[in-house]
Write a structure and sequence with these properties.
Blueprint lengths: L7 H12 L9 E5 L6 E2 L4 E9 L5 E8 L9 H25 L12 E5 L6 E5 L18 H24 L1 H8 L5 H6 L5 H12 L7 H7 L5 H9 L7 E3 L8 E8 L2 E8 L6 E3 L1 H10 L4 H4 L2 H18 L4 H4 L2 H11 L1 H15 L2 H9 L4 H16 L2 H17 L3
Antiparallel strand pairs: 1-3, 2-3, 3-4, 4-6, 5-6, 7-10, 8-9
Helix pairs in contact: 3-4, 3-9, 3-11, 6-14, 6-16, 6-17, 9-13, 9-14, 14-17
Length: about 400
């Protein structure tokens, strides 16, 4: 795979690919970067797309390369990337081997193929299959409301992920503990770097969306949460005994969809990406984070129907894996834990509503502009404060908070 010395980006990605210990002989491949797309930068990663072309056969492998952002927050990225690499390199292969040993025909395969990665010395990266080449598409991550068919699709996918994890843990407790012991709670880790402050600001702004004279009972219940950042950290430390592997980063932008014709009907297929926040916790954290980040008030009022769908799918897969769903994770516990632990999802949902309303160009400018970190942070804070005063935010915040009070979460 001959490098192109005049192109620093190519050089960097070339070194990444040749550093992967793989049975493939990289010298028989050429790397072709996608020059039609600009690099995509998120909070914890920068992305490049391209193709690996087999010089002998012409076979093309579409790849996406995820690296530490050149301009971003100052944290130890090693912990962040180590989590995701642990999932792809150790945890999922063990879960996959387990489900195959059970003779499962409809395997849980809702993650892209992993090619390789590195999590040390500020040279962290992950190389994955680029599933958009296979027809998977990302919905507009800034959608105000997620259509019910996608809500249902994700609830069913999470049900199968959680079921597979629960049963493996139940039947192989020591192996499960060994596989997951190295995972770090990245959400708690990020909060120590001040990233919980925007969530706290959004929650306080949500309280201000209510009239204290006419809606005093709601305001009183919302104000029972004295410290939002502490609440987020404590919520992740769920005290219940029913814990499984959770996706963790349940934003719509971390899910890709495509429709496939199957037995004269269109079947929604889903792939989950970005497992940097993967952690062992209550399933409610995944479900509530996703649900309250995009469900309409009408769908929030139907939360019991979504939980029923989740548990039906969960139970079916648990039985296929040879276990009793009521022993693994009783339905009554799911309902109880929703009221106990979905508070984290509610707070995250309110914060995400601010993020969705931020102007995309300004957000990218704050990430990429070559300014001191303090200035970028203050620019971002001021933009968030502006968004929190707008009617669109107030309406969304009211919807989430009203549901929380009506359903008994607050």
């Amino acid at each position: 795979m001959a490098a192109q010395p005049l192109d620093p980006i190519y050089e960097r990605l070339y070194r990444i690919l040749t550093s992967i210990r793989s049975p493939e002989k990289w010298e028989y491949f050429s790397l072709e970067l996608d020059r039609t797309q600009q690099r995509t930068t998120k909070l914890l990663s920068e992305f490049y797309t391209g193709k690996l072309i087999n010089k002998d056969t012409g076979e093309v492998t579409h790849i996406i390369i995820k690296v530490v952002p050149s301009c971003g927050i100052i944290i130890n990225y090693e912990e962040v990337y180590k989590n995701e690499i642990c999932f792809y390199n150790r945890i999922f292969p063990a879960l996959n081997k387990f489900q195959k040993s059970k003779g499962i025909k409809n395997l849980f395969d809702n993650v892209p193929n992993y090619i390789g990665g590195h999590s040390h010395a500020q040279k962290e990266f992950i190389v994955m299959e680029n599933i958009t080449a296979a027809g998977y598409e990302m919905l507009d991550k800034d959608l105000r409301y997620i259509d019910s068919k996608y809500l249902k699709g994700i609830f069913k996918v999470y049900a199968r992920l959680h079921a597979l994890s629960f049963v493996y843990k139940h039947q192989h407790p020591e192996e499960f503990k060994s596989l997951t012991d190295g995972l770090v709670d990245i959400l708690k880790f990020l909060n120590t770097h001040g990233l919980g402050r925007p969530m706290e600001s959004a929650y306080l702004a949500a309280i201000d969306a209510f009239n204290p004279e006419l809606e005093g009972d709601i305001v009183m219940k919302l104000k029972k949460i004295k410290n939002v950042q502490e609440t987020l950290v404590n919520a992740r430390s769920s005290s219940g005994k029913y814990k499984c592997l959770t996706h963790g980063n349940c934003l719509l932008g971390n899910m890709l969809f495509k429709y496939k014709s199957c037995e004269e009907k269109e079947e929604l297929q889903v792939k989950l990406i970005d497992f940097q926040l993967v952690y062992v916790s209550t399933p409610v954290h995944d479900l509530s984070y996703f649900f309250y980040s995009g469900a309409s008030k009408d769908d929030m009022d139907k939360v019991d129907q979504y939980l029923d769908l989740y548990y039906d799918t969960f139970s079916l897969f648990v039985k296929e894996l040879g276990a009793d769903p009521q022993e693994i994770y009783p339905y009554e516990v799911l309902k109880e834990e929703w009221k106990k632990y979905s508070l984290m999802g509610l707070i995250m949902g309110i914060g995400v509503s601010v993020k969705k309303l931020l102007d995309k160009n300004n957000t990218e400018t704050h990430t990429m502009v070559d300014l001191p970190r303090e200035i970028k942070t203050e620019m971002f804070r001021q933009k968030c404060l502006q968004i929190q005063k707008e009617n669109d935010f107030k309406q969304r915040a009211r919807e989430i908070c009203l549901h929380a009070v009506e359903y008994g979460i607050l």
